Amino acid sequence: xxxxxxxxxxxxxxxxxxxxxxxxxxxxxxxxxxxxxxxxxxxxxxxxxxxxxxxxxxxxxxxxxxxxxxxxxxxxxxxxxxxxxxxxxxxxxxxxxxxxxxxxxxxxxxxxxxxxxxxxxxxxxxxxxxxxxxxxxxxxxxxxxxxxxxxxxxxxxxxxxxxxxxxxxxxxxxxxxxxxxxxxxxxxxxxxxxxxxxxxxxxxxxxxxxxxxxxxxxxxxxxxxxxxxxxxxxxxxxxxxxxxxxxxxxxxxxxxxxxxxxxxxxxxxxxxxxxxxxxxxxxxxxxxxxxxxxxxxxxxxxxxxxxxxxxxxxxxxxxxxxxxxxxxxxxxxxxxxxxxxxxxxxxxxxxxxxxxxxxxxxxxxxxxxxxxxxxxxxxxxxxxxxxxxxxxxxxxxxxxxxxxxxxxxxxxxxxxxxxxxxxxxxxxxxxxxxxxxxxxxxxxxxxxxxxxx
Length: 453
Description:
The structure is a single chain. The chain is an alpha/beta fold. Helices cover 32% and strands 25% of the residues. The chain has a six-stranded parallel sheet with strand order 3-2-1-4-5-6, sandwiched between helices. Helix 14 links the parallel strand 16 and strand 17 (351-353). The two termini are 15 Å apart. The model has no long low-confidence stretch (mean pLDDT 87).
C-alpha cells in the first residue's frame, strides 16, 4: 500500500514506524529538516522537505497515486492538516485522514461536512485518550477489557500478582479445574511476559506479573473474576493530577456520569482556566501532585481511582505508584514514551494510556482495506486485537480452524454470528457474515490478512 504521511512529529514518526513494519511504501512530508533527519536515523522511509500545503510538494510525494494520506502535521493551528488533506483528496488520494486539536471539528455537522469534502476520518488523539480512560474507569475490575457485539463477547487482561490463584499452575492444570460448562464460557488466548507475547500451550506455566489475555462470553466474566482472584470496584470518586486537555475532557465526562472529581494542577493560570471551563462542582486545586502530603490532605485515600496526566511520564508513573501505596484501588497513567509503558506495567500501574498507540490503532484499520471493523492495542503486549467480517470465498471460511494453517502469532478468540456469540475452538468453522475477533502480534498480520482476502 502506498501511504503518504504529512508531518514528522511524534505521531507521524510513530505511524511511519508501525506502518513500515507492514511493508508499505511510505513517504513523509515536513518542512522541518531536523524532524526529518531524526526520523531517518531510526527508520528507512522516503522523506521530502517542503511546504506541507504546496500542491507541488504533494504531487512530488505521489499523493495522486497513494492509497492513504494521513495529515498529522505537528502545528498549533490545524489548518495545515485540513488544507493538506483536502488538497490530497483533490489530487487523487484514495483515502484521506486528518488530525485536529479542537473538539469542535468532531461535531456531527462538521464530520458530515468534511466527509462530503472527501476526508474519511478526523481524529483528535486527546479526545480518544479521554474516552479510553472513561471506558476503563467504568469497568468493575482492574482488568483491561474490550467488548464485541454490545458486550456479548469480551477480551480481558488480568495481571497476576503475588496472591493470584493461578501462579505456578500449568495451563492444562488450570483447565482441569473447570467444569465442561465453565470451559465453554472463556478461553485463555495469550500471555504477555517481559515484553514478549506468548500463545500458550498445555505446558505453559503461569508466572508472577504475567499479563493474561482471555476471551469470554458475558456469562464468563464472573468466573474469570473468581479464578483470577480479582475484586470488583465501583468508581465513584476520582482524583486527577495534571490539567492538560485530556484531563479537562476526562473531568467533564466523569462528572457527567455522576462521578465525583477532584483535579490538581501545578500551574495557577491553568487552574483559573479550568475553573472557568469546568462545572462548579468539579474541584480544581492549585498544587504539586508530586507532593504526597498534598495528595493525602486532598483525600487520595478516599478515592476509588487516581489518574495522572501531567506532562512528565516519570511523574505520572511515580504518582500512580504512590497512589497505590495509599490504598487507591485503580490507577491510570498517561505515558508518551513507549519505552516507559512496560516499566509502568511492571511497577503496578493498572492502566497505561499512550496517545500515539491509540491513534495508530484507529488509523491502522484503514490499511486493511475495509475488512477490519476496528483495531485496538492492549497493554502488556505488542499484539493487536482485530475484528474482521468474513465474506464468501475467504480462505478462513474453507475449513475448521484446527485444519487451517494459521499464523503462529495469531489466534481466533471468538465469533459473533447473527444473535449468537461463542468462544472459538478447534472445531469452529467460520462462515460468511461472521464477525471474527483475532488476537495477533504484528509479524503475523500479513499472513493473517491473506486468510481474510
